[in-house]
Design brief:
The chain is an alpha/beta fold. 52% of the residues lie in helices and 10% in strands. The strands form four sheets. It has an eight-stranded mixed β-sheet, sandwiched between helices. Strand 9, helix 15 and strand 10 form a beta-alpha-beta unit. Keywords: Membrane, Transmembrane, Transmembrane helix.
Length: 696
């Protein structure tokens, strides 16, 4: 009787799991199909999706990509547990990644069904290569599912009873499991050559299916134990007595840890056969990509240093560095809006400006402007409204001056300690050259910094500016931005006290965004629809918006936000048609800050820029049109600034988040124009001769 009940429960459990999986899968297919239909009728999708490989531009009957543990078509919780235990041996040294990782180690934003993803799937599951096979299999599975479900019940009963009767105990040292382990591991390592860590981050759909399976498994486990107690009262009575005796003998139960308690698990090392312990916490099981810029830099074997910077108004910024301490050429990289230093290293060793500059002998500094959800400030009790009360003015006259001065302090100290004759060689001049490479909002902030420092007659310490699609002029934009401009200007007095900033406020919703980015990758029609709608909101810009959402600087722990006053400042610039500083709303307030009733028009002060400037625009950029970058160029040229201008076939985010060899070569060619002065070159030759003499 006990065996019969076990068989019935086992078959029922697997049937329920199969039914729930197929139901969820059909729902996802419906969503993907509806998204494909909507995507087919949306205008302008071809230009928006043309730069992203693998998007489905027409409806398809092919079902969505199965979760990692369902690629063989088996709906079994035990199958997932087996796969997870095999993966644990190879995943201990691999972080979760939001982008595709090619054989050269470069990280790209995760675009749905990109080339490396398709290659990875081909290497792992060759039976899914044929599109027609998948098409007919999908059709017949829908038609024959009811008959298949009914006919499988007797076979499952027979198979379960047969395996229970012929089951033999196995030991941990048996050769068969180890052989299976080695085969599985070889396949996994082969996949990692092309796509090392991307598939290790689950999406919402995969998490939902896993949660349903775990719930069903738990329910049937309770039912099975209850049935066992009813059918075997003697065994139940003995178990209760044994449990009571263990308590009376002083045996302590294992304490129930909190959700953050860690569990020690043993895994076999790659080279050392002895088990090594690793801690698995609850937050790790959430399976999101929360890597930092430090993780990316050190993963590729580069040195890293974090330098805290405190601004004059108390904001704590993070200045990150790939140090080359004896270098006398410095590159300072500054990100744009809703971005962080991660943008400069997100394309891996080959495609990232930060790594390219370091390989060329530069000391690389990566700046982070104020505006993170973590709200780092010297005043730990600062309110959210007080923290977010800043505009682009504060980026240009508070953040960047503090960062540049910290770089100057660090470099001067290091060079003086390593080169004692530095003061005589430089004769009191700055002992290094610094080139700033800035994108979007960072370009506007660095221009504001240089001009205001010149007005205040303070050194700005920069030798060259390379500005990639810089902000500042925005009067040439589409209808969507114009509507947003008037809404901001009209509702600013009402919204400013209520909405201090724009960001995702809770860890749960940030985690949800991180996982949804993975779902957009798995289900191409849904991802294409989201990509198209986001592009509409960005003026039709064809950047890989969905891929950028999957990058780890949008993670559950932290993310960059946008202050309401920064957005209002951009609306003021667009409305005025000038590169102005923030308008405080009244002549008296402006007079107190600027000494004039109107905010300063920075374009009128371009003649104060005394360093070469290289401007770069994107022909496909719909956020900052090329005409607006040319406006910077014309004003600088007419003011006598040494300025150059170039255009590339790029969208707005392609300047940082896409691997563009042509752009990277251009940027590095401009950065390499920063050379030491003849006096410094002579001093370097003297130092080399002294080192040679010392070696002799």
């Amino acid at each position: 009787m006990q065996r019969f009940v076990d068989n019935v429960l086992a078959v029922t459990k697997e049937s329920v799991k199969t039914f729930t999986y197929e139901s969820l899968n059909n729902i996802v297919r419906l969503i993907n199909g509806v998204s494909a239909l909507l995507l087919a009728i949306l205008p302008g999708k071809t230009s928006i999706l043309e730069g992203i490989h693998g998007w489905e531009l027409r409806p398809t009957f092919r079902g969505p990509r199965l979760p990692r543990w369902m690629e063989n078509g088996v709906s079994s919780f035990n199958q997932f547990i087996h796969e997870l235990s095999v993966d644990s041996d190879t995943s201990s040294s691999v972080d979760y990644s939001s982008g595709e990782e090619d054989t050269d180690g470069s990280i790209h934003p995760a675009s749905p069904l990109s080339q490396s993803s398709r290659v990875s799937r081909t290497s792992s599951f060759p039976k899914y290569d044929r599109r027609w096979t998948r098409f007919f299999r999908c059709i017949f599975s829908w038609i024959l599912f009811p008959a298949k479900f009914l006919l499988e019940i007797p076979f499952r009963l027979y198979r379960t009873s047969y395996y229970r009767g012929s089951e033999a105990p196995t030991t941990t040292g048996s050769p068969r499991p180890s052989r299976l382990h080695s085969i599985k591991r070889a396949h996994i390592l082969k996949d990692h050559v092309v796509q090392r860590a991307t598939d290790r981050r689950r999406g919402v759909i995969e998490d939902l299916h896993l949660a349903i399976e775990i719930f069903i498994e738990a329910i049937f486990d309770v039912v099975h134990k209850a049935a066992h107690c009813l059918l075997s009262p003697a065994a139940t009575f003995r178990t209760v007595l044994r449990w009571s005796y263990s308590h009376s003998a002083g045996t302590k139960d294992i304490p129930a840890g909190s959700s953050d308690a860690s569990m020690s698990t043993a895994t076999l090392g790659d080279n050392d056969p002895t088990p090594t312990e690793r801690n698995t916490s609850f937050h790790q099981s959430l399976n999101t990509d929360a890597r930092t810029c430090r993780d990316v830099i050190t993963e590729f074997g580069y040195p890293y240093e974090a330098i805290p910077v405190v601004t004059a108004d108390g904001y704590v910024l993070l200045l990150e560095r790939i140090p080359r301490r004896d270098a006398r050429k410095v590159v300072y990289l500054q990100h744009g809006i809703l971005d962080s230093s991660m943008g400069w290293v997100s394309n891996g060793v080959v495609g990232s400006p930060a790594f390219a500059a370091f390989d060329q002998g530069f000391d690389v500094f990566l700046g982070n402007l104020r505006g993170l959800v973590s709200r780092e400030h010297v005043d730990k009790n600062i309110s959210s409204r007080q923290y977010w009360r800043y505009s682009i003015n504060e980026h240009g006259i508070e953040d960047i001056p503090a960062i540049i001065e910290k770089i100057h302090e660090v470099k001067t100290s290091e060079l003086k300690s390593s080169q004692p004759d530095l003061e005589e060689e430089t004769d009191g001049d700055q002992p290094y050259k610094i080139c700033a490479v800035c994108h979007s909002l960072g370009g506007a902030a660095i221009l504001m910094y240089v001009i205001t420092r010149q007005i205040e007659e303070k050194p700005h310490r920069l030798s060259r500016l390379v500005l990639l699609s810089p902000a500042g002029f925005h009067d040439d934009s589409n209808f969507a931005f114009t509507v947003v401009e008037y809404l901001f200007l009209l509702l600013a007095p009402i919204l400013a006290p209520i909405v201090p900033s724009f960001y995702i406020p809770t860890r749960f919703f940030r985690m949800l965004l991180n996982k949804l980015a993975r779902d957009f990758h798995n289900y191409p029609a849904v991802g294409g629809l989201v990509q198209t709608l986001m592009s509409y909101g960005a003026g039709g810009d064809s950047s890989n918006w969905v891929g950028v959402l999957g990058l780890p600087h949008y993670n559950m722990n932290d993310m960059p936000g946008v202050s309401f006053h920064v957005a209002l400042h951009l609306a003021q610039m667009k409305h005025a048609g000038k590169f102005i500083m923030f308008d405080y709303g009244s002549a008296a307030a402006n007079m107190e800050v600027y000494g004039s009733p109107e905010p300063l028009d920075l374009g009128e002060y371009y003649g104060l820029i005394d360093v070469p400037v290289d401007l770069v625009a994107g022909r496909k950029d719909r956020v900052i049109h090329p005409s607006m970058v040319r406006k910077h160029y014309k004003l600088m040229r007419d003011s006598g600034v040494e300025v150059s201008y170039d255009e590339f076939e790029y969208a707005h985010l392609d300047f940082t988040f896409s691997h563009r060899e042509e752009l990277l070569s251009y940027v590095m060619s401009r950065v390499l124009l920063v050379e030491p002065t003849p006096k410094e070159q002579y001093g370097q030759k003297v130092m080399k001769l002294k080192k040679k003499d010392a070696q002799k």
